[in-house]
Amino acid sequence: MSRSSEVSAPRTPAVLITGASSGLGAGMAKVFADHGSDLVITGRRMEMLQAVRASIQERNPGRLVEPIRLDVNQHEEVFAVFERAAARMGHLDRIVVNAGVGMGSTLGAGRHNGNTHTAQTNFVAGMVQCEAAMRVLYRQGTGQLVIISSVAAARGLPGPMNVYAASKAALVHLAEGIRSDVDHQGLPIKVSTIRPGYIDTEMQTRTGRRHWLLTDYEAGCRAMVHAIEREVDDACVPRWPWAVFSMAIKHLPGPVVRRLI
């Protein structure tokens, strides 16, 4: 066969997901693998990352899944791990900033540690991950940054949801600013904000209540990946009922919002 008639095989897409040892991160990893992507998955619990890898490779034999231990609050580690992932995969098509916590309490109740940890993990560490991700994407000239926010970002929320909602709202604005930067430069880099609704995960279970609109775990993860692969700018997922829910809590009176959340 002549050199001119050779056709190179398409490159397998590569996705990096933080906070992928459980919950939405693990669920998205499995869906991305089903859709043909190789993966770098990170989290604090290596044994759980290895379990996620085993589950993926059982469903998709031969799929490359690289687990790397990472505490996103160790900021220098974030940069090192993102660079390691880029070198390992050769190219990162999608970087999903997903790691987060929700362990707040009502401000003024005297339990600031949970609120501080939530703000630091969700926003400060989220910003660091975006910095590390954009260094990779700017160098590549292509790719997609995905920031996982929440439908709770629609407005300030009361009680233990206060700092969580504020940190997720800050991520929305962070993503919007990065999107403006890449658009201004005319770069083929996509920036997507994904706002999942209440999805049946470990974090949701720890709240001690089941929201009346709670979305099935697998359906929620599939909806998130579908929105990411469509390269949306900003979307609530699953669209029904969470786009309507987000709009409602943004505009309804406070007492009604308290009942809805």
Describe this structure in words.
- The protein has a single domain (11-260), classed as Rossmann fold, CATH 3.40.50.
- 51% of the residues lie in helices and 14% in strands.
- It has 9 helices and 7 strands; from the N terminus they run E-H-E-H-E-H-E-H-E-H-E-H-H-E-H-H.
- The protein has a 7-stranded parallel sheet with strand order 3-2-1-4-5-6-7, with helices on both faces.
- Strand 2, helix 2 and strand 3 form a beta-alpha-beta unit.
- The longest helix has 29 residues, at 112-140.
- How many extended strands? 7
CATH architecture classification name: 3-Layer(aba) Sandwich
Listing every helix as H and every strand as E from the N terminus to the C terminus, the arrangement reads EHEHEHEHEHEHHEHH
Strand order of the largest sheet: 3-2-1-4-5-6-7
| CA-CA gap between termini | 64 Å
Mean pLDDT: 92
Spatial extent as radius of gyration? 19 Å
Count of DSSP-assigned helices:
9
CATH class: Alpha Beta
Q: What is the fold named in CATH at topology level?
A: Rossmann fold
